[in-house]
Specification:
alpha+beta, OB fold (Dihydrolipoamide Acetyltransferase, E2P), four-stranded antiparallel β-sheet, 2 helices
Length: about 160
């Protein structure tokens, strides 16, 4: 099994090198990392539990078809006014609004934040990841519920920047 930090290191090394593809097998697990061509788009999707998880590079037309299938979910997201900043999920995980059960939430509507203010925790693979506001301003809207499963890129908060 590959550890998240090992995968991140491999990706960083790939970015800094001229390698286009790396395939590694370790203790029955297989990891393939491939840089997409200019005519490909990377689509990450969940695979069945028996299959290895890996980003899949596919031709632009096929990627457009996959995105068109996912468009209804994106259309259901609330529309955000221009000038507002949306804090999005940097990973898939479980959203927690407070540091522990029963504790007050990190932030709520009307809370003032700066770029280093922790706004929530995303639990991914038994790791608690603190998510920071990224901007200085005021929380206008909280878009998710405590304990909700979150997708990569899903809007979490709307912030009115200062």
């Amino acid at each position: 099994m590959f550890k998240l930090n090992e995968i991140k290191e491999l990706i960083e090394l790939m970015d800094q090198s001229s390698l286009q593809e790396v395939e590694i097998e370790n203790e029955g697990s297989r990891l393939v990392i491939r840089k997409p061509n200019k005519t490909e788009q990377v689509i990450v999707s969940a695979a069945p539990a028996t299959a290895a998880y890996a980003p899949v590079a596919m031709p632009q037309q096929q990627a457009a078809a996959v995105q068109a299938q996912q468009a209804p979910a994106a259309a259901a997201a609330p529309s955000i006014d221009a000038g507002l900043h949306t804090i999005t999920a940097p990973m898939v995980g479980t959203f927690y609004s407070a540091p522990s059960p029963g504790a007050a939430p990190f932030v709520s509507k009307g809370s003032r934040v700066n770029d280093k203010t922790v706004v929530c925790i995303l639990e991914a693979m038994k790791l608690m990841n603190e998510i920071e506001a990224e901007v200085k301003g005021e929380i206008v809207e909280v878009l998710v519920e405590n304990g909700q499963l979150i997708e990569y890129g899903q809007p979490l908060f709307v912030v009115k920047p200062e």
